[in-house]
Specification:
63 residues, mainly beta, two-stranded antiparallel ribbon, 4 strands
């Protein structure tokens, strides 16, 4: 099937055609990431935690 997709955000074509993100991961900038723990994409794409925090359960925690 021919269709246009955004390979930067499509979880079934992440970064290239046919590359699927595994369960629980999202596609951000063409890479499959876990939004529950990824400090550059915490909770959603582009939500970056600052240097003093980490990403826990999709939220930046502050020590």
């Amino acid at each position: 099937m021919n269709k246009c997709v955004n390979m930067s955000t499509d979880i079934s074509n992440c970064g290239k055609c046919g590359k699927k993100c595994s369960y629980g991961k999202i596609c951000c900038q063409g890479k499959c990431v876990n939004p529950q723990t990824n400090e550059k994409h915490c909770g959603k794409c582009g939500n970056k935690c600052n240097a003093q925090s980490s990403c826990i359960y999709g939220m930046c925690s502050y020590a």
